[in-house]
Amino acid sequence: MADIGAAELAQLQEGMTDQQKIMFITQYSSEKKERTVGLILSLLVGVLGVDRFYVGDIGLGVLKLLTFGVCGILAIVDWFLIMGRVDEFNRKKVREIAAAIKPS
Fold it and tell me: Where exactly are the structural domains of the chain?
């Protein structure tokens, strides 16, 4: 899974007025998460679940916090999975924003 591209953003903006497009881009830019930040958090404080809190996975974040990443195993697994979770978070967020802004 890769980061959201310009073509996908343009497709979501179809049917929007210029003002709606500006609102869409502004809101998405302020709410999207960065893949690099997710990976850095996972590498540095992943055993505390900070990486999962970053992408909105509160349940797994609490589990990792209380068990120190289940003795480090989940923390290591998340080194490989967290960028995909950031992408999933961004895709979900961009669809929510588009649905809220697009005319019915």
Answer: 54-104
